[in-house]
Amino acid sequence: MNGRLVDNEKNMQEKLVEKEKKMQEYAEKRLGETEDYFKQQVEGRLTENEKQIQQRLGISEVKIWGHGQEIQQKVKESIAEHGTFVEQVAAVVLSETVNEQGYFTRMIPMKQIPNDMTQITGTYGGGCLYVERKKIETSDNFKNLIKGVWGLDLILYQGCYQMGGFNRRYSYTPRTGPAIISPLNASLSPRTLAMSPNT
Asked: Which of 22, 73, 152, 161 could cross-link with 172 by S-S, CB 3.0 to 4.6 Å?
């Protein structure tokens, strides 16, 4: 009877070991299947997410490009709309300088108008002078313009053209071109005639 019990015990242990082996194999198999399934799910989701991201990125790029075009168009319209005003403001604001005597001077705006004419606006709200462009191309033309329009006689003195007496002396320097006519006497008012060499 003891022998039978020992045999039964051996059989039971073998069956237990065998069942344990089968259970372990089954668990490993299920674990592998679960891992494979999980990997497939994750890869599928990643692929799907990547596609969605690419689509959204493409849509965003198109929107950004469209907004960029709109902004460029609005900037062009704004520049065109405000360009003249900005030029006028710049002519007034940027033209103020301090001359040798410490006076603030303002450039006289020169504007090209049709029929080869240049409009020279007077300082401090003065009237306009209309001159043919070809008459102010050189410093001699400019000197002759002053002489012809205002009847002033300019005299060359120490490299400067001067006009008037002791109290009303103005000069024009030929080497600077038609740029500035400024008062020489510090007691004079700060009215200064200046012309742009660009026109």
From this structure: 161
